[in-house]
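User: Show me sequence and structure for the first protein, then do the same for the second.

Assistant: Starting with the first protein.
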Amino acid sequence: MIKAGEAVWDYDAAAVIVILAIKHFMKVIKDAAFGTCSFHITLLDCLHAINKALQFGFLDFSTFDVEEYEHYEKAENGDFNWIIPKKILAFSGPHSRSRIENGYPHHAPEAYFPYFRRHSVTTVIRLNKRMYDAKRFKEAGFEHYDLFFADGSIPTDTIVQTFLNICENAEGAIAVHCKGNEEFTQQVIIKEYHVILHISLRS
């Protein structure tokens, strides 16, 4: 028997709890894209990622604004999150105009301008095919780059190096977006920290 506070457990019950906990930690998570998943993430991987974020100062529980996070992650409010605070923001791919399609809200580039300006975003990187005219960002004073590669595929070394160069030379924060209406996992390599961040972009 095992006594924990006022609760008393027998060894068999404790063993079952431990086994279930291990199975939960090892459960594989995959993105929502169609086709065979070539990369799997476990809950333990997620906990390691949180630990890395704490080490590098990407996350501070004492200042993390849960209400703001939950507000902006909703599609109707822009569907975006800071991956690295004040440096890299992942956001839903803009469309040519703001509208509701099959119950899902799409946003025109202009919908993001106020937030981007308030938070010193100076550069936009598009990873998917064109759904809007880049001039709309450029004429509003933002740098805009296209680094297209197929949804769910691996970017070429040239694209990765170009992405790093943009990150290192941008005057302010960078907003990155991919394909609209689909979740997929995008690898962003941050050379300064020698770490690969597997960023799930809900976009």
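Switching to the second protein now.
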Amino acid sequence: MASIGKGIDFEDLLPVMANKLGGEGLIKELCNGFQLLMDKDKGVITLDSLRSNAALLGLQDLKEDELVSMMREGDLDGDGALTQMEFCVLMFRLSPELMEESWFWLEEALQNEFNDNSSI
């Protein structure tokens, strides 16, 4: 279990998705999730759009204070909305196991890049 804000727990499925989809597939799915939750006119996730669209991602049981807490935790620039990058960062931050695995993926990607460049 992971938690949002004031100790609100949820089942952390991102590591399962990452293992199934791989790094690129997971990022694509996070982007799809962002698209579902965002305000289509503003291009960002607002509290209103999160409230309206949460059920699309199975988050219909989140209470108002939980939604507000999620927005606050993810809003890195303090503008009251989540950009796609802020949303993805939030999802990774809420998944401790995925954070640990992301170092492995980064190391693997850097090694592949190094190997590709050294053969040129």
